[in-house]
Amino acid sequence: MSGCGAETGLMSVDQALATIVDRVHALASESIPLRQALNRYLAADIHSEIDLPLFSQSAVDGYAICSNQSVLENSKFELIGEIRAGQDQNLQLENGQALRIFTGAKIPEGTTTVARQEIVTPLSPDQIQINIALEMHADIRDIGEELSRGQLLANQGQHLSVGAIAALAMAGVQQVEVYQFPKVAVVITGDEVAKSIDDFSTGKIFDANAPLIQAWFEQQQQNVNIYHVEDTELALQQLIQQLKQECDVILTTGGVSVGDYDFVRPVALAQGFQQIFWKVKQKPGKPMLFAEYQRSSGDFCYLLGLPGNPAAVFVGMQIYASTLLQALQGQPKLPNWFSATLKQSVKSDSRERFLRMYAYFEQGQLWVENLSKQQSHMLSNLMSANCLIRIPENQVLSAGSTVQGLFL
Amino acid sequence: MSGCGAETGLMSVDQALATIVDRVHALASESIPLRQALNRYLAADIHSEIDLPLFSQSAVDGYAICSNQSVLENSKFELIGEIRAGQDQNLQLENGQALRIFTGAKIPEGTTTVARQEIVTPLSPDQIQINIALEMHADIRDIGEELSRGQLLANQGQHLSVGAIAALAMAGVQQVEVYQFPKVAVVITGDEVAKSIDDFSTGKIFDANAPLIQAWFEQQQQNVNIYHVEDTELALQQLIQQLKQECDVILTTGGVSVGDYDFVRPVALAQGFQQIFWKVKQKPGKPMLFAEYQRSSGDFCYLLGLPGNPAAVFVGMQIYASTLLQALQGQPKLPNWFSATLKQSVKSDSRERFLRMYAYFEQGQLWVENLSKQQSHMLSNLMSANCLIRIPENQVLSAGSTVQGLFL
User: Fold this and answer.
1) Average pLDDT for A196-200
2) Has UniProt tagged this entry with the keyword Transferase (chains A, B) (predicted)?
3) From A86, A165, A375, residue closest to B211, measured CB to CB
4) Do B203 and A362 touch (CB under 8 A)?
5) Through-space distance between the first and last CA atoms of chain A, rounded to whole angstroms
6) Which one of A302, B143, B229, B320 has the fewest beta carbons within 10 angstroms of its own beta carbon?
7) Rounded Cα–Cα distance for residues B256 and A77 (Å)
8) Using the beta-carbon criterion (under 8 Å), do B261 and A339 form an inter-chain contact?
9) Model pLDDT for residues B240-294, shown as the tens digit of each residue
């Protein structure tokens, strides 16, 4: 363990997150087809352009009935035809008449109630009998009973989950105004990182960071460009110079500490980036850099520099990159931490720790269990981890303590 | 409300799910690149082909030291060179010598400990001083300390989450043996469903089901073919005849009840499908059909027939389609229900209900709050719902009761 926790004046995790939320400018919006909008965020309220349901319809397979008086047990009605879902027959029922009707079909004019088929006996091709007394207006879905035309259907900022997309589709929405998804470039630094199996040789390691980040974006239906760059100031400078003009976000891994070959920060500063913060009092991931560059157009390019250890990259993506990407999409919000109960005591540290743990429910209570192999160069416990838990600095955390976390 | 809950002999939700889990045959496996394997399941154990770490390496930027005795305060060492991450210099340190070393660099032969740069003063280009006493073997990540070559890295059945992919990549895994993802065809029935905005006319409705199902699969990095079919026996029969030869799963929406135009079940049976179950004691989604067809090759095509109401489709996908797809991928498991506490009392029914609710944490306790507009033709509460909650049949569920559910 390097005793770097002793370093003073570091920013706390909460301060770092609040800074991202306060500082980042949302991107512009764009109009895209609803079917391509999964996991995006609405940039404007949507008011319904239709009534929902769009017309009064039968809730069952049965018979539409017109009766000037209460429908008593064993009432008989003249059967004058049939209407199916999707049809529009412009029929008018008169007193004493009935029409065969199916679920979702438009309720004909004159209908006073609907009799579901289970309580009806057809007596002849032209006559039916209702076997039990029937209340008025039974089994009818009324026009607009869910939502009236002009009513608010979805708020600005609404996350377009699978369910939200279905609900918008049902209201006839085909196109949505959403925040742009940031254009992201990922820069993997470090001469030790083998770019491919052919590039592998003694002293090098297999790269977990590019696959991790690629999969993390794929999980959100996004692709990113990944660049590998050698540990020279010139190579990094040329790449940053190009990317700062093209991207909304540059995510780097490695080279962000104070080593002789840690070029990310000096290159970023030399390229005109303003440091927003550097170094967070956390483990893993202390030497994290957050900086911004303002283009002559007025737009910003943000640089999130993560340390190269894969555990630091994992935490950086789950906690910081997600907060940054949401803020860029008009959602300046802190992570929505859950609270859970520790199953075993956990060792605190002079820096706040993020531990990979296993969470499970028991009688409405969320418990979290520690996993071994938490060091920053180890990842294999991610096979069983399902959450990241915050362990505050310098505290005694016995079994039964309440902690905050995020599901993975 | 159609009083269909009164119907006797219906299968329970738990029975229906257990039947899927017991009955479904897993698909064969295939070998694919790790980078394309997000959210798939391993079909075989993976033993590590390398040690992790692959070689002993420095955990810090500092100096590799060779000392036959304890390193005391203000010890001096001869500085003989430098080694960076990714390099392999085949250097041999002798007693009294030191080498500049960086995080992740290979520990040279002869190293007894590492001094992090914060505790070292360079005295000249050839000499350094260690300012404080140093323990043996400090700040060294040992070869194989996370995992030895040949050790079990991941189990058959492992879900390939973002973290699991990163952990496998770090162990040099490039190709994985996973269960095939089922080939799925989606069949949307119902003449009332407008196929597009041009197809829209009075009596028709905007289709929520195709967008819902498409987004649901997209969330899991999968595409499906969606077919719209008119409500005639012939059209449905021709389509099923073709799909049963090509697909592992046919998902249908609508046309699965007992109405005069409900052709899914009769067509499936006529096409050689064996009914596994039909009708589940649940709301929404009672007239659900599950059937299988065995091809002459011995392979199976499963048909999951969901009712046409969008809420029934939503529940059907979250609860039943997910269980079916997992079983086909070698994971015959019931849903992993959480337990939570009801904030308000909830009305029970003669059938088990699935309610869309809002879940939130308070002091390690998960609470769920009811939402309005729960009817099966309504979806707008999915803008705020984040879970599906099971309300058992015929029970008094007061505030404070424990219920089961799934996050959305």
Assistant:
1) 68
2) yes
3) A165
4) no
5) 27
6) B143
7) 28
8) no
9) 999 999 999 999 999 998 878 899 999 999 999 999 999 999 999 999 999 999 9
Report, at the CATH architecture level, how domain A32-50+149-179 is classified: Alpha-Beta Complex (3.90)
Q: Domain segments of chain B: what residues? A: 4-28+181-328, 32-52+145-179, 57-141, 338-407
Q: Give tens-digit pLDDT for B198-209.
A: 677 778 889 999
Q: Is the predicted pLDDT of residue B5 greater than 70, yes or no?
A: no
Q: What is the DSSP string of B249-281?
A: EEEEES--SSSTT--HHHHHHHTTPEEEEE-BS
Cα separation, A299 vs A274, in Å, equals 14
> DSSP H helical segments within A133-276, as ranges?
162-170, 209-218, 233-246, 264-270
Per-residue exposure over A54-68, b if at least 16 CB sit within 10 Å of its own CB, e if not? bbbbbbbbbbbbbbe
- Say which CATH superfamily domain B57-141 falls into: Molybdopterin biosynthesis moea protein, domain 3. (2.170.190.11)
The chain-wide mean pLDDT, for chain A, equals: 93
Q: What is the mean pLDDT of chain B?
A: 93
Contact A166 B212 (CB under 8 A): yes
Of B165, B308, B310, nearest to A212 by CB-CB distance is B165
| Torsions phi, psi for B154 (to 5 deg) | -150, 140
A297 touches chain B (CB under 8 A): no
CATH number of B32-52+145-179: 3.90.105.10
Residues of B in contact with A365 (CB under 8 A): 364-366
Which pLDDT score is estimated for A231?
86
Interface check A316 vs B, CB under 8 A: no
Domain B4-28+181-328 has CATH 3.10.129.10: no
Question: Does B170 sit within 8 Å of A206, measured CB to CB?
Answer: yes
Q: What is the pLDDT of residues B103-130, one digit of tens each?
A: 889 999 999 999 999 999 999 999 999 9
Residue A235 contacts B where some CB pair is shorter than 8 Å:
no
Q: Token pair of A252, please?
A: 């780097």
Whether ipTM > 0.85 holds is yes
